[in-house]
Amino acid sequence: MDDTATAADGRTRASYPADFLWGTATASYQIEGSAYADGRGRSIWDTFSHTPGRIANDENGDVACDHYRRMPADVALMADLGVNAYRFSVSWPRVVPTGAGAVEPRGLDFYDRVVDDELLTHGIAPVLTLYHWDLPQALEDNGGWLDRETSYRFAEYAGIVAERLGDRVHTWITLNEAVVSATFGYGFGTHAPGQALLVGSFRATHHLLLGHGLAVQTLRAALPGARVGITHNLSPVHPESDSAADRAAAEALDAVQNRTYMDPVLLGTYPGPGATGIPVDLSCVLDGDLELISAPLDVLGINYYNPTLVSAPGEGNPLPFELKAFPSAETTDMGWPVVPDGLREVLVAQKERYGDRLPPVMVTESGVAVPDVLVEGDVPSVDDPRRVAYLRSHIAAVGAAIDQGVDVRGYFVWSFLDNFEWAEGYRPRFGLVYTDYPTQRRIPKASFAWYRSFLGGTP
């Protein structure tokens, strides 16, 4: 192994547990393309991305990375990378085109090939996410996540996938980042389905979490002994100053963006208006819901990108906090500050807050968008030293959290391929592999070579 292929603090792969999962991650709508192939139904992201003005440059995921047709070659490239795990998501409308009722066997066949013919054949553990934001449009037409029935349809879909893929899946993740689905999709309207309901988006939050609880129940019944979890996007919140008002603002935002999603899953409660500072209509929370939502889990996924800075609200601000620019020496193409120690901080904070209620955790997304440039030549190349530095520092942060007693079981780089970055379109590039969209060429970047070397392969 190349001597430079160590974490920023000098740790090597051997410094981490022997059974640690080292992986990379993708999401179905962001990479698959083939939006109208083999009976796939329409998703809310198909509708949203074809609505003028919603996506940068009016781009869409119709083709994306063409992964649906190129999947075997992509997995072979992943095997060359040397990862022992791959986190991917199943497209709900590819399997159940209208979200309920008739099942599309060709969709299930595709994911069967992903798991059996490719991942397991290459010794890569499948970590499957059931929902990474591509809700079938037919369900949205009936209310989407604002409608309680969607939670039950999600559990049925979970059962369909479980019956087909069975115990060949290493880990089942029910939802990815319910906070983003609810807040940006139903609160601010900047993501699909584009509803701007503000605090009214809590109905979507609750029904997403209820869907999680029902899916856990379904998976437990179908696959006794399965490893089941959920993934949350967490951000440590810092007050701008040590004043009582700023500290209160930080506690309020922490309750809104972190505890609203963690507490019900691990404690069976929602933080009240005294914690969030925001009155919420809880009439959608019915007896027994929180018991379902808080069923024991085997793993909890944590996605981390950046910390948040807040102050007390200024005059005229109806919220109990005001967002500020977090000071950092570097920002990403998404405008996010690069703060590696925030990953250690957020992992340790969950252990301190939830104690024995916190199951083993995996960092299910960690990555950076930087302005990559393809250099053509006999061997096309992309030099991305900023991404290499990012990976080295964040892998070190995971090691530091383990040193502080956090039971971390895996680290997944976001993302394997450059892909369709939701409302931002194709401009931001998160991939270890450069996607040349006009030709669909895959060009492994310098960060790919670094990660492969860190994992024990050739540089």
Q: What is the topological layout?
A:
Layout: E1 21-25, H1 28-31, H2 44-49, H3 67-81, E2 85-89, H4 92-95, H5 105-120, E3 125-131, H6 137-141, H7 149-165, E4 171-176, H8 178-187, H9 202-222, E5 228-233, E6 237-239, H10 244-266, H11 273-276, H12 289-293, E7 299-303, E8 308-311, E9 322-324, H13 341-354, E10 361-366, H14 385-403, E11 408-414, E12 433-436, E13 441-444, H15 446-454
Parallel strand pairs: 1-2, 1-11, 2-3, 3-4, 4-5, 5-7, 6-8, 7-10, 10-11
Antiparallel strand pairs: 8-9, 12-13
Architecture overview:
- The strands form 3 sheets. Strands 1-2-3-4-5-7-10-11 form an 8-stranded parallel β-barrel, surrounded by 5 helices. It has a 3-stranded mixed beta sheet with strand order 6-8-9, with helices on one face. A two-stranded antiparallel ribbon has the order 12-13.
- Strand 10 (361-366), helix 14 (385-403) and strand 11 form a beta-alpha-beta unit.
- The chain is α/β, with parallel strands linked by helices.
- 37% of the residues lie in helices and 14% in strands.
